[in-house]
Amino acid sequence: MSTTTSKSVIYPGSFDPITNGHENVIERSLDLFEKVFVAVAKTSSHDKQSLFNPEERAEIIRELFLGQEGERVQVILFDGLLVDLAKELQTPVIIRGLRAVSDFEYEFQMAQMNRQLESEIETIFLAPDQQYSFLSSTLVREVATLGGDVSDFVSPLVLKKMSERL
Ligand code: PNS
């Protein structure tokens, strides 16, 4: 695996559900890499009360990027360590969105741990558009569960799936 020649990148996360902020990071990644593997984790470091199961989350993202699917955006469900997925996909570059300084500690810890586990892994942090700097799946889930309007924060498809679920 060589980072310098990587044309693809892995964008891992829980995506429960995928928000406009996540979509923004995927679009930005497509400006930098030929292919983006959106990797939906079956186990997350901060597992919370879930809205969709991992299979459903992956299916929603596939539907969202249908035009790109099979070409530049590939959605993958994974179990186990992210570094093992990176080896399997021959893609040593991981992208994570960094919304605010508060994200930094957790993200930096993960990046260092992943590098410790596999020295060739590089983590790149992308800043999403400023309008998404407050946005998180956790808040979207909470607001929607309590009857709030989340239409500004997720795609219409995600909104529909959420209303069906709630
Ligand atoms: O969207 P999230 O919940 O912040 O994503 C966290 C995720 C899924 C990227 C992280 O928990 C992860 O990589 N899980 C896979 C298991 C693993 O490799 N754990 C060690 C991370 S240092």
User: How far apart lie the N and C ends?
Assistant: 43 Å
Q: Residue share in helices?
A: 40-55%
Radius of gyration: 15 Å
What is the H/E string? EHEHEHEHEHH
The helix count comes to: 6
Unreliable stretches (pLDDT < 50, length at least 5) are none
What's the structural blueprint in terms of helices and strands?
Elements: E1 8-13, H1 20-32, E2 35-41, H2 54-64, E3 73-78, H3 82-88, E4 93-97, H4 101-117, E5 122-126, H5 137-145, H6 156-165
Parallel strand pairs: 1-2, 2-3, 4-5
Bound molecules: 4'-phosphopantetheine.
4'-phosphopantetheine binds next to strand 1 and helix 4.
Characterization of the model:
This protein is of the alpha/beta class. The protein is 40% helix and 17% strand. The chain has six helices and five strands, in the order E-H-E-H-E-H-E-H-E-H-H. A three-stranded parallel beta sheet has the order 1-2-3, with helices on both faces. Strand 2 (35-41), helix 2 (54-64) and strand 3 form a beta-alpha-beta unit. The mean pLDDT is 92.
